[in-house]
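Aim 2 progress update. The chain analyzed this quarter is reproduced below.
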Amino acid sequence: MTAATTRPPDRTLGVLGGMGPAATAEFLRLLASDAPATEDGHHPRIVMLSEPAIPDRTVAILRNDPRAARLLRECLATLVGWGADLLAIPCNTAHVFLGALPAALSAPIVDIVDATLDEAVRLSPEGGWLTATTGTVVSGIYQDRAAARGYRLYVPDATTQKLIHETAVQVKAERIERAGRLYGDVVEGLWRQRALPVVAACTELPLAYRATPLPPESMVSSLRALSRACVDRLYAARTLATPVPAPASVPLPLSRPR
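Predicted structure tokens:
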């Protein structure tokens, strides 16, 4: 991340949202917050397609259903046609389908998995807990990328995984308080096993975590990681100041404040 600049990016960011809408709205808020801007004209140009009709990504993975991948490709191509020369998808599970897409599109995709793992390594070099949808976990996309870096991700047991997935479902249903209670209990249980940050590798999970009293510095937000990665790419040739150092690792409490 960098300090403020008076020169806006000369690239257009295309955002494919709607998976889910609340996470997409939060991503746009973070983009506005993270951009090194002091007035409207300093912010990047964004074109957004919110397509909530894209089939459930976890169901598509578990059933090997090609419809989600097909619609994702169509939507990304639409964004490129609208002038996007950089693409972002604030949905982790959707990235499971993107392996063959970069070569087929004229605009690169800012990868949320790599961005999130970058943040996790900076915050907690010794490892972290993977919390994600069941589709993301079953795909192995995070585990494989982490292993390639030599980074240790711990995967919750099957019972806990069901609760994590249910947390995302509750956020999509706008039951944020319930999601916060559920996710808070899950996180505290994980910390009793191993005191490492939780990697919120589903874009609904940072919203649930925010509804808990747990310390924000003990969670790696894939939404924030994607926002920061997009800002870095958009302003790469435009920033005029010294990078801000990455935050140091922090100890984790094993229970929420009483």
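The first helix runs from residue 21 to 34. Residues 1-6, 239-258 have pLDDT under 50 and may be disordered. These observations will guide the mutagenesis experiments scheduled for the next reporting period.
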